[in-house]
């Protein structure tokens, strides 16, 4: 398990967009940002759009997530919308295209129901609880052993089957819960 966690990469991108005018945005912005990235991706790379936005196997998880804790709905001109795009495993290889798709859609289609145009002003990565410039993935094992978090153990509650492969070999794991001691993970 330790070897798998040390090879599995996660990229936590922090993106900041400046809105060109005042307007209304939904209080919960995850779906809006998901749609924005999809619009841009459909224009820039239809094959990648198909890989990320169409359903493949039943309950197959997405290789990314968008996290936005900003609940402000009335935004002034120049407002900075901050959110996190998390990429998992091989999806990290697509990070440049996904960033480009967000930029394109924000500038050409606009954000939210009022289609407010916006510009990407800052891109950074979050590694070990710190924000660093550029695109810097981190091994899942390093995230779990972050001294700032000091986890004693980590549990994954899986709602769908999990398949892990390493060197083309499938690992058999319990379906519902996997636990391991974070202290036993070697960095």
Structure description:
With 187 residues, the protein is α+β, with helices and mostly antiparallel strands. Helix content is 26%, strand content 32%. The protein has 5 helices and 12 strands. It has helices at 2-7, 30-44, 46-53, 95-108, 140-144; strands spanning 9-19, 23-24, 64-67, 74-75, 80-88, 118-127, 130-133, 138-139, 153-157, 164-166, 169-171, 177-181. Strands 1, 3, 5, 6, 7 and 8 form a 6-stranded antiparallel beta sheet that branches. Strands 2-4 form a two-stranded antiparallel sheet. Strands 9-12 form a two-stranded antiparallel ribbon. Strand 6 and strand 7 (130-133) form a beta hairpin. Helix 2 (30-44) packs antiparallel against helix 3. It is globular. Mean pLDDT is 81; it is low at 174-187.
Q: What are the secondary-structure elements, in order, as H or E?
A: HEEHHEEEHEEEHEEEE
User: Would you identify the regions where 5 or more consecutive residues have pLDDT less than 50?
Assistant: 174-187
Largest sheet: 6 strands, antiparallel
How large is the radius of gyration?
18 Å
Total helices: the number is 5
Measured by DSSP, the beta-strand proportion falls in 25-35%
Query: What integer is the average pLDDT?
Result: 81
Total beta strand runs: 12
Shape: globular
- What would you call the structural class? alpha+beta
Helix content class: 25-40%
What is the CA-CA span between the terminal residues? 13 Å
């Amino acid at each position: 398990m330790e070897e798998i966690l040390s090879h599995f990469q996660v990229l936590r991108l922090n993106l900041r967009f400046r809105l060109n005018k005042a307007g209304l945005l939904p209080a919960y912005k995850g779906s809006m940002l998901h749609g924005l990235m999809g619009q841009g991706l459909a224009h820039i790379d239809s094959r990648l759009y198909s890989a990320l936005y169409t359903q493949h196997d039943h309950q197959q998880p997405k290789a990314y997530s968008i996290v936005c804790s900003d609940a402000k709905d009335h935004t002034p001109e120049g407002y900075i919308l901050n959110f996190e795009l998390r990429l998992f495993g091989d999806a990290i290889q697509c990070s440049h295209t996904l960033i480009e798709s967000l930029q394109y859609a924000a500038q050409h289609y606009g954000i939210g129901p009022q289609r407010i145009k916006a510009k990407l002003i800052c891109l950074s990565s979050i590694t070990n609880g710190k924000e660093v410039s550029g695109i810097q993935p981190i091994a899942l094992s390093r995230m779990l052993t972050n001294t700032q978090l000091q986890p004693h153990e980590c549990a994954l509650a899986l709602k769908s089957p999990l398949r892990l492969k390493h060197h083309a070999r499938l690992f058999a794991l319990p379906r519902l819960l996997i636990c391991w001691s974070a202290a036993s993970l070697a960095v």
